[in-house]
Amino acid sequence: MRAKRLLLGFFLSASFLLSCAPETENIDTVNEQAKAVMALDYRDFNRAASEMIQSMIQSGKLNKPDGGRYVMTTGRIVNDTMQRIDTDQLMAKIEQDLMNSGQVVMTSAVGGAGAPDQMVYDVRDLRDSEVGDEFDPDTLAAKKQLIAPELSITGKIFQRNLRYDKKRQQVEYYFQLKITDLTSGLRFWQEEVLIGKRGSNKSVAW
Amino acid sequence: MLAGLWSYKVLRACNDSKLQETQVMKTILNVLLIITAVVLSGCYESHDERINLNEEIRSDTLMSNILTRPVGAAFSALIGQGIEITHVVTGTNKAGFMVLQVDGYNRSTGVRRFEYKIEWLDDRGMVIDSAASTWLPVSAKGKSRFSFSSVAPSRDAVDFKINTRKAG
């Protein structure tokens, strides 16, 4: 009898504890007001991208003198933080807004980490291959059709960890981007955005 | 006015003795001098409106010093003083993009942090989707002016709306 009571008590406790586990929920990415984390999260990337875009458009450097749009490529974006960041998380938003601004068109044929879309070259390899004859030649990309980029956007994301006091640390994330004229090698525009965080020494920034 | 009323009551009560009358007149004069000093000293005027000298930097006054400042801060918190928007400037830059600057004043005595989100609208009133439309932080020092600016992500933008929220 006593054993049965103990067993019942155990199962009741277990079910109570299990039911207290936090439920899975979707993040409200539009109006999220959850507390900050020491690592970089999507809100930090949104903020950095927004400030970079604002700076680029406000600078007026992307306004082509003779009208039209600049052809731009994304060069190397170095991640020098302790986190595994896909730099596309930052650049995708920036590229999207640059193209929507009507001042820039991005190229998928040239990039810092290889062609953003390898298919550009795959179809050319197909054209030059044995099976190329199978295709209607009017539908294959001819030679000398690719447009070379005029501008390149490159940058770096790095962090600095500082000891704030006995219990807290400070982590500073620096987002640096620059636009270079590939013809002359001159730098058109440059910006740095700082996102600083301060928290417990027990928090990890990776 | 209160001093005048008080002095009138004092005069009525002391109409018997000449000595008492002299003393009363002296007291009235002293009170008027103190009131004048308070009124004149409490009115800080900046030499240049473009420069905002914070209370903690400029010289103290009778109305703003180490003793009266905490009282002022408590009163400010009690009546819930906060951010006010004083001026909005819009225009178009050389590239044809709408630009916006919002000027404000923080009426509270402490730093106020808030976030704003700008949504740009085209000529039909439709929101222009942009990665730049995200919550951005602003920090305004107490009793100080602040401003933030933005540029539209597209030449189609002709209007805007701004939402604000308390910083997380």
Q: What is the gist of this entry?
A:
Chain A is of the alpha/beta class and 206 residues long.
Walk me through what this model shows.
The complex is a heterodimer of chains A (206) and B (168). Chain A is of the alpha/beta class and 206 residues long. Chain A contains 4 helices and 5 strands, in the order H-H-E-H-E-H-E-E-E. Chain A has a 5-stranded mixed sheet with strand order 2-1-3-4-5, covered by helices on one side. In chain A, a hairpin with a 4-residue loop joins strand 3 (151-163) and strand 4. The termini of chain A are far apart. The model of chain A has no long low-confidence stretch (mean pLDDT 90). Chain B has 168 residues and is α+β, with helices and mostly antiparallel strands. In chain B, strands 1-2-5 form a 3-stranded antiparallel sheet, with no helix packed on it. In chain B, helix 1 packs antiparallel against helix 2. Chain B is elongated and about 85 Å long. The mean pLDDT of chain B is 82. Chains A and B meet through helix 2 and helix 3 of A and strand 5 of B.
Most extensive chain-chain interface: A-B, 26 and 22 residues
Q: How far apart, in Å, are the first and last alpha carbons of chain A?
A: 52 Å
Q: How much is the average pLDDT of chain B?
A: 82
Number of strands of chain B: 6
The amount of beta strand of chain A, in percent, is: 25-35%
Number of strands of chain A: 5
SS class of chain B: alpha+beta
How do the strands line up in the largest sheet of chain B? 1-2-5
Helix percent of chain B reads 25-40%
CA-based shape of chain A: extended
Number of helices of chain A: 4
Number of helices of chain B: 3
List the secondary-structure elements of chain B in sequence, H or E.
HHHEEEEEE
Topology of chain A as a string of helices (H) and strands (E): HHEHEHEEE
Helix content of chain A: 25-40%
Strand order in the largest sheet of chain A: 2-1-3-4-5
| Terminal residue distance of chain B | 48 Å
